[in-house]
Amino acid sequence: MATSDDVQAVVATLPEVEERTSRGGVLEWRVRDKLFAWERPLRSADRTALGDAAPDGPILAARVPDLGAKQALLADEPEVFFTTPHFDDYPMVLVRLERIAPPDLAELLVEAWLDRAPARLARTYLDRTSRDTDSPTARPSGPLDSERDGGRRPE
Fold first, then answer.
1. What distance in Å separates the CA atoms of residue 36 and residue 68, rounded to the nearest whole number?
2. Torsions phi, psi of 32, nearest 5?
3. pLDDT surpasses 80 at 149
4. Residue 130: what pLDDT?
5. For the chain, what are the domain ranges?
6. 83 contacts 91 by C-beta, under 8 angstroms
7. What does the pLDDT read at residue 154?
8. Which CATH number fits domain 4-140: 3.40.50.620, 3.90.1150.30, 3.30.1120.10, 1.10.3720.10?
9. CA distance between the termini of the chain
10. Spatial CA neighbour of 35 closest among 92, 120, 95, 102
């Protein structure tokens, strides 16, 4: 299904994204210095907590608008999305890249970016992509739409 190349392709289309390498040597993506997605290899504590359910393969962490959106994704697609105790009460999900379809990955990354981008920048992006429906990151509608955080994002 999706790969790190797909992640790179989506984030490259989002305005003002900065790619950094963390102290741990993993890639992370920020908009105006706000983290919205990052590579997240499992740590030994994660593997212990997850037991046999600990996935192999590349894992991406992504922000979601709120804990309701997180719970919806975890409940709707547990084969794709998961979390660890480290991220309890934090609005983000872990994603098994090998199990997410590229269009769903694009939706997740765009929503994560929208959640962290300043309102004016997000509005400009949404205006542009609503006119350009052929864009690979044109704002999709999906499970995160119903979980938006009280209209914080411009429509």
1. 17
2. 45, 50
3. no
4. 84
5. 4-140
6. no
7. 37
8. 3.90.1150.30
9. 30
10. 92
Q: Using a pLDDT cut of 90, give the percent of the chain over it.
A: 72
CA separation, residue 99 to residues 102, 126, 148 (Å): 9, 27, 24
How many alpha carbons fall within 13 Å on the CB side of residue 152? 13
Q: How many CA atoms lie within 13 Å of 42's alpha carbon, on the beta-carbon side?
A: 22
Q: Record the tokens describing residue 112, joined without a space.
A: 């994560």
- What average pLDDT score do residues 148-152 get? 41
* Number of residues that make up the chain: 155
Predicted pLDDT of residue 147: 42
- Which of the 8 DSSP states describes residue 42? P
At 152, the amino acid letter reads: R
Residues 34, 116 contacting (CB under 8 angstroms): yes
